[in-house]
């Protein structure tokens, strides 16, 4: 298993030569087969708000300085148009029903590149002032947006294509303006040569970045497929192994019960077969929970009340060497909608894991609190929608989990315990329950410092609870 957060480029993909083969070729074919799919393109256009705020803020300061202090109010008008154009493009990209075709794809690129055309217009206006200071600002404005093209917008080649066209048109206009002012002199020819060299360099860089990103995407898809097949292999191997053991017990007990003549022994064998059958049923329930297909009976639950009831139960199943502390939740903790029976099973499972991590004793702390998520956040690879959540937290002072092991603990049949001490389905079942309830599971741990497990569950809306 590769270390977490490390991109492994498979041997079938040659980054340096750009000749993917095998699985990487299949992934690359998949990328090309969706060349006109606008879904991913529209998602890409929803850029990070911070980048947009910084870009518009700095351009606004620049326009204000040039417009007011240098008495060039036209740039305030340019910025106002640029600001409105960005809002309009964002709205169009979100709502316009472009066709999934070459024409729709090109239309999308043209609309998305309109802000770049306004940057080119501002560049030409600055250059036309014939003041060296403003001409330097013009080149800085153009080059900074070309840099933005190579970084932020390089994910979508169609955006780069349109941006390059606008930039080339702007450079041609700059050369034409110089020729009209100074004639076809050596100065103008050198200026044209330098501008052409700069644009060729940017075009070459854009091509390199696009190809490199495409190969990385192909390698990433190939790695995801490999990881998926590895997980499927572990899952099927674990299921077949566990069920084979249970079937051996069931069939063996039934066969022996037919051979025995003593009623007491026959009853004991049948009881053993029944016990193995119930273990198989529990294993099936855990697998369903992991696959988010478990049958739940959700209802509105007061988490504070559930925590109070759970403490007395934990005191009975945990050894005296473990101190159980339930932190009183804050007043007004929101209700959640979930299956209370499954919630108890989940929390008991987490408590038993904490017990195993503290063989010499320690502290187990259970708490809950409200949090508000203003915009979509990612928790352990799952995006949580904006809204109010109750976070149930269980913290232990045990041995902790190694960094290399932590990403694997929620995978089915993965366990660090010895044979017979755990099935490896506990945390995968907990994760499945959290996600099926509309939330997420988060695990933080350090060796020697203990583990923190958090369950995020959405708060029930007031209207829904009444």
Automatic annotation (TrEMBL):
The keyword Cytoplasm does not apply. Gene3D superfamilies: 1.10.287.130, Histidine kinase-like ATPase, C-terminal domain. InterPro entries: HATPase_C_sf, HATPase_dom, His_kinase_dom, HisK_dim/P_dom, HisK_dim/P_sf, Sig_transdc_His_kin-like_C. This is histidine kinase. Pfam families: HATPase_c (PF02518), HisKA (PF00512). GO terms for molecular function: phosphorelay sensor kinase activity. Residues 254-286 form a coiled coil. Residues 238-461 form the Histidine kinase domain. SMART domains: HATPase_c (SM00387), HisKA (SM00388). Keywords: Coiled coil, Membrane, Phosphoprotein, Transmembrane, Transmembrane helix. Its EC number is 2.7.13.3. Residues 1-27 are annotated as: Disordered.
């Amino acid at each position: 298993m590769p270390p977490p957060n490390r991109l492994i480029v498979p041997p079938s993909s040659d980054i340096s030569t750009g000749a993917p083969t095998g699985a990487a070729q299949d992934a690359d074919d998949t990328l090309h087969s969706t060349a006109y799919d606008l879904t991913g393109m529209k998602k890409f256009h929803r850029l990070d708000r911070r980048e947009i705020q910084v870009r518009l803020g700095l351009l606004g300061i620049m326009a204000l300085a040039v417009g007011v202090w240098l008495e060039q109010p036209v740039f305030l008008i340019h910025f106002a148009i640029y600001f409105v154009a960005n809002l309009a493009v964002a709205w169009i990209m979100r709502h316009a029903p472009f066709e999934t075709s070459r024409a729709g794809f090109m239309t999308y690129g043209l609309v998305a590149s309109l802000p770049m055309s306004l940057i080119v217009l501002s560049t030409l206006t600055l250059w036309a002032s014939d003041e060296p200071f403003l001409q330097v600002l013009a080149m800085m404005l153009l080059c900074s947006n070309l840099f933005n093209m190579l970084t932020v917008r390089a994910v979508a080649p169609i955006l780069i294509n349109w941006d390059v066209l606008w930039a080339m048109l702007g450079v041609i206009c700059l050369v034409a303006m110089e020729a009209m002012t100074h004639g076809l002199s050596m100065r103008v020819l050198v200026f044209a040569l330098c501008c052409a060299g700069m644009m060729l360099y940017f075009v070459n860089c854009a091509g390199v970045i696009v190809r490199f990103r495409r190969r990385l995407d192909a390698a990433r898809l190939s790695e995801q497929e490999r990881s998926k097949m590895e997980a499927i292999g572990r899952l099927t191997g674990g299921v077949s192994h566990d069920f084979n053991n249970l079937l051996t017990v069931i069939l063996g007990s039934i066969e022996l019960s037919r051979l025995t003549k003593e009623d007491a022994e026959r009853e004991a064998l049948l009881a053993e077969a029944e016990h193995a059958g119930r273990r198989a049923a529990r294993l099936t329930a855990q697998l369903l929970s992991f696959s988010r297909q478990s049958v739940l009976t959700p209802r509105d639950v007061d988490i504070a009340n559930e925590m109070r009831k759970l403490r007395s139960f934990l005191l009975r199943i945990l050894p005296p060497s473990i101190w159980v502390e339930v932190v009183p939740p804050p007043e007004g903790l929101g209700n959640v909608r979930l299956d209370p029976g499954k919630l108890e099973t989940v929390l008991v499972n987490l408590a038993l894991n904490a017990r195993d991590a503290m063989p010499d004793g320690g502290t187990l702390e259970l708490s809950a609190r409200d949090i508000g998520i203003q915009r979509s956040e990612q928790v352990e690879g799952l995006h949580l929608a904006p809204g109010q959540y109750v976070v149930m937290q269980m913290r232990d002072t045990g041995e902790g989990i190694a960094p290399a092991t932590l990403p694997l603990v929620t995978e089915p049949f993965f366990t660090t315990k010895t044979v017979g001490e755990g099935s490896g389905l506990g945390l995968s079942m907990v994760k499945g329950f959290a996600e099926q309830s509309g939330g997420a599971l988060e695990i933080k741990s350090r060796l020697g410092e203990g583990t923190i497990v958090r369950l995020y569950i959405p708060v029930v809306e007031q209207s829904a609870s009444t």
